[in-house]
Amino acid sequence: MPHELNRADKRILRALENGVRNPSWLAEQLDYSRQYVHQRLQLLVAAEYVNNLGHGLYELEELPNGLGQDSKDQ
């Protein structure tokens, strides 16, 4: 399922590069609501960029092309 990444998606993926996280932690760190982060995570799981480990934990599966270290979308 193709998914066009928005700024929030890119920030979430960047945060997941540093390890397993839950929506509450991501929301607090990125200044989004927990509900919004959860919604974006579900889309990222469907796009196969993120794995849902269960118990509210998510990990990065694959960093999308074009979201390398030089990306300015943080």
From TrEMBL:
Residue span(s) of domain HTH marR-type: 5-50
SUPFAM superfamilies documented for this protein: Winged helix' DNA-binding domain
Any GO MF annotation of the entry: DNA-binding transcription factor activity
InterPro entries given in the database record: HTH_MarR-typ (IPR000835), WH-like_DNA-bd_sf (IPR036388), WH_DNA-bd_sf (IPR036390)
Pfam families referenced in this protein's UniProt entry, alphabetically: MarR_2 (PF12802)
Protein name: HTH marR-type domain-containing protein
